[in-house]
Each structure stands twice: as structure tokens, then as C-alpha cells.
Design brief:
The protein has 167 residues and is mainly α. The protein has six helices and five strands, in the order H-E-E-E-H-H-E-E-H-H-H. The strands form two sheets. Strands 1-2-3 form a three-stranded antiparallel sheet. The chain has a two-stranded antiparallel sheet with strand order 4-5. The longest helix is centred in the N-terminal third of the chain and has 20 residues. It starts with 5 loop residues before the first helix and ends in a 7-residue tail after the last helix.
Amino acid sequence: GTGMRLLEGLRLRVKDVDLAKQTLVVREGKGNKDRVTVLPASLIEPLRKQLERVRVLHAGDLEAGFGEVFLPQALARKKPNSGRELAWQYLFPAKSLSSDPRGGTIRRHHIDEKRLQRAVQHAVRTAEINKPATPRTLRHSFATHMLERGYDIRTIQELLGHKDVKT
């Protein structure tokens, strides 16, 4: 319901969700660009619950002496404590802590993309859909439904993060 790419969704941070405005901020998407996309009303309550789960998990990580997350670009140098703030935590964190290959710091990353891909495949089989479907299919469906609802192609292009209307 948002038109995001798989990794854009997995890389969402707590601070990127605005339930009041029903928007999501996609940071450093394809082409290293930021954009804002829509948040359907049907996702507000599930995301509210997810935000609470992240808050509880993060509090536990901090209590255990962890709780630092990888920060983009030079932010780690400019604001070294930001990585421990709730706002910067991933919206969909991994189940366990792991060693960051960029320096060995023990931290929690976002869930693995293969986990989401397998979940979509399971849902497709369970729903007995006899057509190929992937997370990307959902992105295309989003665009199709927007067109069917009368949104203009430029708006859809912006929401999807495409430079060229041909895409």
C-alpha cells in the first residue's frame, strides 16, 4: 500500500513514520534520493503496534548494554549518540543482535530481505494464487491501483521514486 521497494521498506527507521500525516519518508532510496510516500489508513494500527514492539526491544537492548544502530553517512561522526536513540532504530529489526562487518560492533540490523521474500511466497501459496508474485509485484499493483483511482502519472512517479515517467 506504499509503493516502496523491498529494501526501502526494510530500511525504514522509527523517525520515518508519521502516523498523524499518514506518510512514510523513504531515505536514500534508489539513486540515493529521499522522498515521501503515502501510508494507507489500514496500516496505521499495525504500525502503531510495531512501533511499540520496537520501543520495548530497544529498551531491552539498551539495558543489556547494546542498542546502537548503524547510522547513514557522516551522521555517526556528527552526532555519535544518535545511534542509540529510538528514532534511529529500524522499524523492522532483526530478531537477534549481530556483529557489524564494518567494524565488529554488536548491534541489531533490519530483518533480512530473504525473510520477507519467503513470507510473500508463503502468502501467495496459501492464497492459492496461480501466478508468479513477489514483493515487486505489490509495488506494481500499487501503481496500477493508483492509476485506476484516477491519480495522474506524475504523482505516481513521485510516490514510486522514478526519475523518468517512462519507467
